[in-house]
């Protein structure tokens, strides 16, 4: 019975091959056939880190990639620098910079401590240094007993706190007429 | 992906894969029934018939694996990707 099993195996393989694999021929135009170099796509897609996919038949969009490659739009290495700009507006430099990740801005280039964990964060010390120097806060004398954050509530001598409050009130409303007069 | 570029350079033959259809099931029934009929005097019709099904299916799986390895294209357009459009002529 073993030979029958072998026969079944061979027949199954052969019949399946003939049913699933189909051969098709195409007759190319004589002029184009002479000018066209028949490029056999790679069996396995060649993918390298940072490189373009060449001959990616079998992957999504592989046929389009091969067609674009053979048409001369891109070459096998994925270099599109030689492709002419169809619009002709000459904005290649800007387009290259914004191709991925966008143009580098001063905010994104800063590497402060706050930006170490959040790219969108802004350095508070830098913002405070740009504050107007003539404001009310600049005229407030430092209090020795203030907390490190500068909070005066419940800290320090009550008389000093009252003096600071009076000074703030005068600075914020210098032209406000006195309520008593 | 096999191709045959003839010396004239005008005719290109390539292969692509298709799914198994109803013809495969019909072949399975016919082949295993025939083998069971042939080997009925050896160990009985049903024993040979059932073992033939096993052999046929295993052979089919091997063939599918080979075709998937050797023939990458899954359609005619994909098989002729990179070539200018021309008259198609199925050979099988």
From TrEMBL, chain A:
Residues 86-95 have a biased composition (Acidic residues). It comes from the Bacteria. Residues 78-156 are annotated as: Disordered. This is Uncharacterized protein. It comes from Terrabacter aerolatus. The lineage of its organism: Bacteria, Bacillati, Actinomycetota, Actinomycetes, Micrococcales.
From TrEMBL, chain B:
This is Uncharacterized protein. It comes from Terrabacter aerolatus. The chain crosses the membrane at residues 21-39, 45-66. Keywords: Membrane, Transmembrane, Transmembrane helix.
């Amino acid at each position: 019975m073993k030979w029958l099993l072998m026969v079944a195996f061979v027949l199954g393989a052969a019949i399946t091959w003939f049913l699933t694999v189909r051969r098709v021929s195409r007759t190319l135009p004589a002029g184009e056939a002479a000018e066209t170099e028949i490029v056999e796509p790679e069996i396995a897609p060649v993918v390298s880190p940072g490189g373009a996919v060449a001959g990616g038949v079998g992957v999504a969009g592989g046929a389009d990639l091969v067609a674009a490659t053979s048409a001369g739009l891109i070459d096998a290495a994925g270099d599109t620098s030689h492709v002419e700009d169809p619009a002709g507006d000459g904005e290649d430099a800007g387009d290259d910079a914004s191709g991925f990740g966008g143009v580098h801005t001063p905010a994104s280039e800063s590497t402060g401590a706050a930006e170490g964990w959040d790219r969108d964060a802004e350095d508070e010390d830098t913002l405070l240094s740009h504050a107007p120097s003539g404001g009310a806060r600049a005229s407030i004398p430092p209090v020795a007993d203030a907390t490190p954050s500068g909070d005066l509530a419940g800290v320090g001598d009550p008389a000093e706190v009252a003096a600071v409050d009076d000074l703030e009130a005068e600075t914020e409303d210098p032209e406000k007429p006195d309520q008593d007069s | 992906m096999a191709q045959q570029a003839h010396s004239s350079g005008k005719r290109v033959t390539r292969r692509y894969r298709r799914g198994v259809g109803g013809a495969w099931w019909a072949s399975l029934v016919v082949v295993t029934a025939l083998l069971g009929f042939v080997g009925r005097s050896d160990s009985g019709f049903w024993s040979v018939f059932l073992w033939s099904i096993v052999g046929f299916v295993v052979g089919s799986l091997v063939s599918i694996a080979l075709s998937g390895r050797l023939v990458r294209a899954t359609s005619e357009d994909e098989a002729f990707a990179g070539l200018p459009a021309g008259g198609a002529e199925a050979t099988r």
